[in-house]
């Protein structure tokens, strides 16, 4: 397997839309997935293609704690690699 992504960051705009960005250091992944947890409720994962470095979560984040987990997918393996927590007010 190649290098895992690095530098996961999250920015939230005035409407509560969150954009994740990261550095894709791999050349052999088959894609990425983002899982979202809102106030202890896990949401389904969103599949993202290979060589992508941005994900926009267009469901506004409201008050409470939000966790976004980035997974990298290789041919037969899914590895949880980066977690970011947001506290929205």
Summarize the structure.
This protein has 89 residues and is mostly beta strands.
Please explain how this structure is put together.
The chain is mostly beta strands and 89 residues long. The protein is 0% helix and 57% strand. The protein contains no helices and 8 strands. The strands form 2 sheets. Strands 3, 4, 5, 7 and 8 form a 5-stranded antiparallel sheet that branches. Strands 1-2-6 form a 3-stranded antiparallel sheet, with no helix packed on it. Strand 1 (6-12) and strand 2 (18-23) form a beta hairpin. The chain is globular, with a radius of gyration of 13 Å. The model has no long low-confidence stretch (mean pLDDT 78).
Helical/strand content category: mainly beta
Helical proportion? under 10%
Rounded mean pLDDT score: 78
Number of helices: 0
Give the strand tally: 8
Q: What is the CA–CA distance across the termini?
A: 39 Å
Helices and strands, in N-to-C order? EEEEEEEE
Radius of gyration: 13 Å
Low-confidence stretches: none
Tell me what portion of residues adopts beta-strand conformation. over 45%
Which outline best applies?
Answer: globular
Largest sheet: 5 strands, antiparallel
